[in-house]
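Project outcomes to date are best conveyed with an example. Our students and postdoctoral researchers have been running inverse folding experiments weekly, and each run begins with a structure described purely in tokens. The record below, which covers 370 residues, was selected by the lab manager from last quarter's runs and is presented without edits.
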């Protein structure tokens, strides 16, 4: 039995394993996919990190300079592969854990092939972008068009000449809408329920990530109006194009909904130019149309649901009291949730996901007895 078993060979799992190995601890990483960075491999082709290279590397091995300031998806995968090789991390691919419960000596893992495995210490690093979520809209079964989750989207080529409705104005939805507009879709609409906070990825070379790091500790009463004022200076008024200004402050929304702002990599330009048309939120489907919350309807060929992910943890663990109603661990990021049980990579901050998991991996590695 290894000293520590880690679930998930993404950035968080690999970082924890590397820090544990540096302490001389035996560690095995179980990964459901065919290789490390499975979730990153499945993201859309044009994806780049929204955080700068120098603040996105994992402990002990920075991201190579030749990958540029805004690292591409494929380069990040190569980096994580190199990271696992550099530290000699024992990754067991094609290993899916179907259930977790307390065991006689730590934790008992039930694998999907019916076998069982024991873990004295278990670190869960499967991530909060684990299980695609598609709302159960009324009438969906009667609609004859094509519906996919954004997790299935790779590029615009299959949608060339087609009428597409993207649902959800988060980072994935906004970037996919821009990709479709640039890639030859006949029509692109973006369904918006809650107006997004939009920031420029960088201004005069200054990345938005640095604003999050420098100002993120301010209380909401100071941060919210400051962020709103910055947005009014940076961004055109999009109300005339169908996107209202957010009613809830950015930091309040981060706290209440784990929300991060949309980084503009083309969506503002495309909305202003009419290449992407904002519409109201989806209310339901009929046999001929998609009904919107403002009483109008549209007739797209394809709906792409950029409607988020769940952690999948409530279905994995016998003890569901470990999680809130959204499936996020109540205790994570360093402290044990139960004796011998840690969760890492579930915190959402304005300073960047990869930077955060690098910090958390050090805390977890220090917290596990040698």
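After processing, the design step wrote out the following sequence:
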């Amino acid at each position: 039995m290894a000293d520590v078993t880690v679930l998930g060979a993404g950035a968080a799992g690999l970082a924890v394993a590397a820090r544990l190995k540096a302490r001389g601890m035996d560690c095995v990483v179980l990964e459901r996919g065919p290789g490390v960075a499975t979730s990153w491999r499945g993201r859309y082709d044009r994806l780049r990190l929204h955080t700068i290279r120098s603040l996105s590397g994992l402990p002990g091995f920075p991201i190579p300079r030749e990958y540029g300031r805004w690292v591409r998806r494929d380069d990040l995968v190569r980096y994580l592969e190199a990271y696992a090789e550099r530290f000699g991390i024992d990754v067991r691919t094609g290993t899916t854990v179907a259930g977790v419960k307390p065991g006689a000596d730590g934790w008992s893992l039930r694998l999907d092939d019916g076998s069982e495995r024991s873990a004295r210490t278990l670190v869960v690093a499967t991530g909060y972008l684990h299980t695609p979520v598609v709302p159960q809209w009324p009438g969906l079964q009667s609609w004859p068009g094509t519906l996919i989750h954004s997790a299935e989207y790779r590029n615009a080529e299959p949608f060339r000449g087609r009428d597409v409705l993207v649902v959800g104005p988060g980072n994935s939805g906004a970037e996919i809408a821009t990709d479709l507009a640039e890639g030859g879709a006949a029509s692109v609409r973006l369904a918006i329920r809650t107006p997004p906070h939009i920031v420029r990825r960088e201004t005069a070379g200054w990345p938005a990530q640095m604003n999050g790091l420098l100002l993120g500790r301010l209380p909401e009463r100071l941060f919210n109006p400051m962020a709103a004022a910055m947005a009014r200076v940076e961004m055109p008024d999009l109300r005339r194009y169908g996107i209202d200004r957010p009613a809830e402050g950015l930091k309040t929304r981060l706290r209440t909904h784990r929300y991060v702002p949309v980084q503009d990599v083309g969506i503002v330009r495309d909305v202003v130019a009419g290449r992407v048309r904002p519409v109201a939120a989806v209310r339901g489907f009929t046999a001929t149309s998609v009904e919107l919350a403002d009483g109008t309807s549209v007739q797209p060929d394809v709906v792409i649901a950029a409607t988020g992910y769940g952690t999948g943890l409530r279905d994995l663990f016998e003890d569901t009291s470990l999680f809130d109603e959204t499936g996020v661990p109540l205790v994570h990021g360093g402290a044990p949730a139960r004796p011998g049980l840690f969760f890492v990579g579930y915190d959402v901050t304005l300073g960047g996901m990869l930077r955060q998991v690098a910090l958390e991996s050090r805390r977890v590695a220090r917290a596990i007895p040698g």
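The CA atoms of residues 80 and 254 lie 28 Å apart. Residues 220-234 form the longest helix (15 residues). The training component of this project remains on track.
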